[in-house]
Every structure is written in structure tokens, then in C-alpha cells.
Q: What sequence folds into this?
């Protein structure tokens, strides 16, 4: 009986130690940069996480939330929390001292509206429970002038669009890309047991001259999977080039509303894409990486070259001139 109690006590202690270790491992599953975001005087960072039915959906959603995180840091208007209290006699006060409270009203709201250009995914991680984490960065210089907008340059536009069509057509069977000189460059990687490392650590392959977009898909056949992965990669790339984030949050007593809109001018328009890498993991998921050269775009100040006051003054001068001519 004595030994039985000792064995039971040993088992309880062992189980407690195992539980503690398991808890530590679970906590370490979250990326370090999620717990301690990086800081840099020249860049602003955004972090997003998501869990969805597929890796492809979760990756895009995590990127959207990372963009939303950046937008919230640069362009958010908070309306102060308003508290009002009232009693049976109809007295209303900001302070409940001395009042017999019968009604309590609390209200707060925030609004965000921001454009983000040329953002880069620094790191991704997928935890054991299937949650994807994404770390994004964007240069702070672009936020110094809110009138900047991204537009494509015209030089060699048709050549690159033609090249893009060659690269993406037939990639399912040929597994190759063709450069501008007609030389075949292999971009297909053999099937891997796990998700390729460039998905998690894009900074290892990223270059300052290009912007990347990632897509993943797993359907019943390879061709459909590749097409969907390409669409998702194109959407990811579009939002890396330019994204507009709008958010409205409202809190009233126990009611909470949160509406977000994350769109890009390139969601439904032509822009330059080039195939960078693609591979298939043994679970049947296809991974596609597209890129677009930064040199094909420029940030242009969209501020009117003439202010409203100057415009009105010139209109008045024109009308005065017309009146003089009539005389």
C-alpha cells in the first residue's frame, strides 16, 4: 500500500512536469516576432495571423491582417470614449458619484484609411494547430506624403507582358520559364516532403529589385491546383504592390461592429508578373511564387499642380477678361 502511494505520487509529479513542458512547447510554437515585433527607424512592420480551411486562404488572410496592422499604425482616428450615466430623476452626468444608476451608455469608434505601397513579406510561420502568421514591412518614406500613388511605367511594358504570357502558359507540363532571349531557365522544384523553405523565409530569396506574391492550392488535380495557386499568388502580389485599407470600428454598450475593406487597384487590372518558383509538396499542395520588377513602377504625387485659391483667382481673371471684350 505504501509503495502504491509512492508510485501514485511519482506519477502525479511526472505528469505535472510533462504538462509544463508541453505548455512551454505550445507557447514556443508562436513565432518570436509575433510576441516581440521588430523595430526599425526606416520601416514599419505589420503582423497578421489566420486559420482557414486551406493554407492558401489562410496565407492571404494573414497578409491582409498584416496590412491592416500597418494601416492602423499610420492612419487611425480614434473618437474618445463617451460615458454617460443617468438616474431615475433624469439627471445625466459623466460621473456616477452620488447618482443611483439606472442607465449607462458607453460609445467609442475608430476609422482607418491608408494606402500602402511596395510591402514585403519578411517571414511566415505555420503553427501546429494550422494557424498561419505573417510579418510584413513597408518603407516609412512613402507615408511622409499622403498624395503619393503608384503607377506603372511605360517602358518595355508590352515586352514584359509578352514574356509573362510565355512564362505562365504550359507551366503545368513543361515546368520551365523562358527569358527575353528565349533561353529556358528551370524554376520548377521537385516534390518535397514538406512546405518549401522559401514559403516561410522569403527574405532568403527576395531581392530589392522585385516584389513577390505567394499562392497555394490543393484541389482534385494538378492543373486546377496550379491555376488557383497562380490566382492567389497574383492577388498576393497585387496587394504587395498597392493596397488600400479601410476600417471602421464602433462600440456602443454591449454592441460591437467592425468593418474592413482591403483592396488593390491591381485586383482587376493588368500588371506585370513573372514566374519565380513553383513546387508541389507531397500532401498534394502546389506552391507558386510570382514576382514583379520594382523598376516598372513609380510613386507619383497626385496633388493638383494648382491649389483651389489659385484656380478661383484665374477663373475670376478669365471672366473679367470676357466682360472687357464684350464692352
A:
Amino acid at each position: 500500500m505504501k509503495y502504491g502511494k509512492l508510485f501514485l505520487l511519482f506519477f502525479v509529479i511526472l505528469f505535472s512536469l510533462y504538462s509544463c513542458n508541453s505548455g512551454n512547447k505550445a507557447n514556443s510554437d508562436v513565432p518570436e516576432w509575433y510576441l516581440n515585433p521588430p523595430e526599425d527607424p526606416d520601416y514599419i512592420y505589420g503582423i497578421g495571423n489566420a486559420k482557414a480551411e486551406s493554407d492558401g486562404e489562410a496565407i492571404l488572410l494573414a497578409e491582409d491582417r498584416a496590412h491592416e496592422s500597418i494601416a492602423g499604425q499610420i492612419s487611425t482616428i480614434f473618437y474618445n470614449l463617451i460615458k454617460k450615466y443617468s438616474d431615475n430623476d433624469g439627471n445625466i452626468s459623466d460621473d456616477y458619484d452620488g447618482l443611483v444608476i439606472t442607465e449607462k451608455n458607453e460609445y467609442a469608434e475608430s476609422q482607418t484609411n491608408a494606402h500602402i505601397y511596395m510591402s514585403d513579406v519578411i517571414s511566415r510561420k505555420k503553427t501546429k494547430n494550422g494557424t498561419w502568421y505573417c510579418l510584413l514591412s513597408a518603407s516609412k518614406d512613402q507615408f511622409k506624403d499622403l498624395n503619393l500613388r503608384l503607377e506603372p511605367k511605360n517602358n518595355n511594358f508590352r515586352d514584359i507582358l509578352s514574356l509573362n504570357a510565355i512564362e505562365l502558359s504550359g507551366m503545368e507540363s513543361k515546368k520551365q520559364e523562358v527569358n527575353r532571349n528565349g533561353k529556358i531557365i528551370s524554376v520548377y522544384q521537385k516534390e518535397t516532403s514538406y512546405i518549401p523553405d522559401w514559403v516561410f523565409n522569403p527574405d532568403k530569396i527576395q531581392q530589392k529589385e522585385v516584389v513577390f506574391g505567394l499562392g497555394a492550392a490543393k484541389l482534385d488535380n494538378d492543373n486546377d491546383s496550379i491555376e488557383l495557386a497562380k490566382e492567389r499568388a497574383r492577388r498576393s502580389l497585387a496587394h504587395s504592390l498597392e493596397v488600400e485599407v479601410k476600417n471602421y470600428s464602433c462600440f456602443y454598450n454591449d454592441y460591437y461592429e467592425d468593418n474592413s475593406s482591403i483592396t488593390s487597384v491591381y485586383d482587376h487590372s493588368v500588371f506585370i508578373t513573372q514566374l519565380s518558383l513553383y513546387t508541389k509538396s507531397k500532401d498534394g499542395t502546389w506552391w507558386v511564387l510570382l514576382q514583379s520588377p520594382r523598376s516598372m513602377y513609380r510613386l507619383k504625387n497626385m496633388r493638383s499642380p494648382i491649389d483651389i485659391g489659385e484656380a478661383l483667382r484665374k477663373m475670376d481673371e478669365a471672366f473679367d477678361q470676357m466682360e472687357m471684350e464684350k464692352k
Summary: The chain has eight helices and 16 strands. The CA atoms of residues 131 and 241 lie 25 Å apart. Helices lie at 2-28, 32-35, 55-74, 157-168, 171-174, 197-200, 222-241, 308-326. The longest helix spans residues 2-28.
